[in-house]
Amino acid sequence: MTAFRLGLTGSIGMGKSTTAGFFAAAGLPVWDADAAVHRLYAQGGAAVPAIASQWPQAIIGGAVDRSALKTIIAADPGALSGIEQIVHPLVAADRADFLHKARADIVVLDIPLLFEKGSESDMDATLLVTAPAALQRARVLARPGMTEAQFHTILSRQMPDAEKRKRATHIIETLSLDAAQACVTALIAYIRQVQHA
Q1: What is the mean pLDDT of the chain?
Q2: What does the pLDDT read at residue 82?
C-alpha cells in the first residue's frame, strides 16, 4: 500500500516546524524541503558542482554559502531562476528518494512554499499551520536579528494566509503547544480511519 502523503505548510512564524516535530514524535516519517536544500548545499552536496560552475563566488569552504547567493540574486535578479533550475530537480529527487524508502502508512512532506509552487497536486491532502497575524508577527520579530523590514519582505513572497486557508484540506491553529499536539494526534487518527474505511 502506498503511503498517504500529507503536505504540511504554513507561513513564517505560524509554528510549522513545531508541528512537523509533533508528527515525527508520533512516529511518522517527515521530509523537510528546507533541510533537503541544506543537504544539497553542504560540502559534498549534489548542488555544489553546478552552482560552482555558474557562480564560483557562492562557494565557501566547499559548500554553497546562502548569504553569498543572496548577494548574487540582489545584484542579478535573473540569477534566481538559474539557481532554481539547478536546485528544484535535485530537491524533487531527494523527495522521491525519501518516499521510496519511507516505510509508513502516512508520510509528512514539510514544504514552506507548497501552494506557491503548486506542489499540492502531489499530495493526498494538505495541512495548513496558522495563527492570528499579531501572534505571527510577535513570534517572527522575537527571532534574533529579525527586523520589521525583513519580516515584510518574507511575507511578500508568501501567499496570504487567507488564500492558503481556502486551499488547505486541514487547518491547525497553533495557539498553544498542547492544543496543536492534540490536533496532530486527532488528524493522524482521522487519516488512518479514512484510509482503512
Answers
A1: 93
A2: 93
Task: Give 87-126 as a DSSP string.
Answer: HHHHHHHHHHHHHHH--SSEEEEE-TTTTTTTGGGG-SEE
Q: Which of 101, 126, 160 is the last residue of a domain?
A: 101
By CB atoms closer than 10 A (0-12, 13-18, 19+), residue 33 is buried
| 106 closest CA partner among 176, 24, 28, 1 | 28
Query: What mean pLDDT is predicted for residues 95-115?
Result: 94
Task: Looking at the structure, tell me whether residues 147 and 185 fall in a common domain.
Answer: yes
Compute the distance between CA of residue 78 and CA of residue 21 in angstroms, rounded to an integer.
35
78 plus 145 within the same structural domain? no
Q: Which amino acid, 107?
A: V
This prediction has a pTM of 0.89
